[in-house]
Amino acid sequence: MATENKNLSVYDKNKIPNAKELRFGIVVSEWNGEITEALYQGAEEALLDCGALPENIFRQNVPGSFELTFGCKKMIQTEKVDAIVAIGSVIRGETSHFDFVCSATAQGIKDLNVAYDVPVIFCVLTDDNIEQSRARSGGKHGNKGTEAAIAAIQMAVIGK
């Protein structure tokens, strides 16, 4: 596992640009809400810790991870953000639905990064079970939302 020996929440604030002048979107899937809310909290806390102003963080909820692409596209078009974090959680079930949703979501977010000059950060957990998701949304591996927020700051600066 990529996160086995890594805490996703660890970052050196001295190496991160100040986010005070930046605007961020966070699009959050409501599916697996326990996980996505924890990821959102990690992302929001990291943005604020790095200087982002609360009034410059915009949240949009969507029903599921598949809908993240559309939600992010609309945020790009309406909020004039410098970067977006797309937050979702897909947990493997007994059918191939998992594979289709994960693939389409990753492809959709990649397409937004190609089509627009606003970086969209992929913060979609694709885990085999709820325990893995909990471990990556504030548990023993830290919080992928935190890691995604730091990436959003770094990419927003590149995009300026």
TrEMBL record:
5-amino-6-(D-ribitylamino)uracil binds at W31, S65, F66, E67, S89, V90, I91, F122. Its EC number is 2.5.1.78. The active site is at H97 (proton donor). (2S)-2-hydroxy-3-oxobutyl phosphate binds at E94, T95, R136. Pathway: Cofactor biosynthesis; riboflavin biosynthesis; riboflavin from 2-hydroxy-3-oxobutyl phosphate and 5-amino-6-(D-ribitylamino)uracil: step 1/2. It is an enzyme of class 2 (transferase). Pfam families: DMRL_synthase. InterPro entries: LS (IPR034964), LS/RS (IPR002180), LS/RS_sf (IPR036467). PANTHER family: 6,7-DIMETHYL-8-RIBITYLLUMAZINE SYNTHASE, 6,7-DIMETHYL-8-RIBITYLLUMAZINE SYNTHASE DMRL SYNTHASE LUMAZINE SYNTHASE. HAMAP family: Lumazine_synth (MF_00178). Catalyzes the formation of 6,7-dimethyl-8-ribityllumazine by condensation of 5-amino-6-(D-ribitylamino)uracil with 3,4-dihydroxy-2-butanone 4-phosphate. This is the penultimate step in the biosynthesis of riboflavin. This is 6,7-dimethyl-8-ribityllumazine synthase. It comes from Flagellimonas profundi.
